[in-house]
What does this fold into?
Amino acid sequence: SQKIEQNSEALNIQEGKTATLTCNYTNYSPAYLQWYRQDPGRGPVFLLLIRENEKEKRKERLKVTFDTTLKQSLFHITASQPADSATYLCALDPTSNTGKLIFGQGTTLQVKP
Amino acid sequence: EAGVAQSPRYKIIEKRQSVAFWCNPISGHATLYWYQQILGQGPKLLIQFQNNGVVDDSQLPKDRFSAERLKGVDSTLKIQPAKLEDSAVYLCASSRLGDTQYFGPGTRLTVL
It folds into this structure.
């Protein structure tokens, strides 16, 4: 069956450390994968998109990798801050560029000062 | 640029009652999506509109849910009759064709 899975347990790290979140998928061949941030009581906010022919993408303190062989994406936040505390969702378009997104269940990150 | 607007923000109803949610997308965005997000889960796509036509409604429970997008702008999502398992946050998102989706704040529905 088709699945997209993220770490269901919350990730707790100390301020200044690097947070690494994992997204694994099975039985999909996505052309790209996206990462979103969601704060309590708010809708998801787009962060980064990485295409199947890109190994790595960076935006300020954020870095995303995409391994189509392992069917896995890693999302890194370097020099983490308490303000980075939120739920992070990965999503993929199973039909390639129709806009239809399948989301993982999200991983909650808590950065402690 | 104004974001995606949704109303109401919160709604509490009894099971078997009906409820409607409204969404106003970002100006110029032809594509509109409705998602259902149950607590602890990621958003699940219910229906996708391109202008005022339906692109995908394969996961919409059509026996009780309906949605329309008149004139290709605002959209309403209706549930009639509601069940306990419909308790969730209903998110509306919009995008230009093939572009990033922008989400509204959502409507939190509680069915008692």
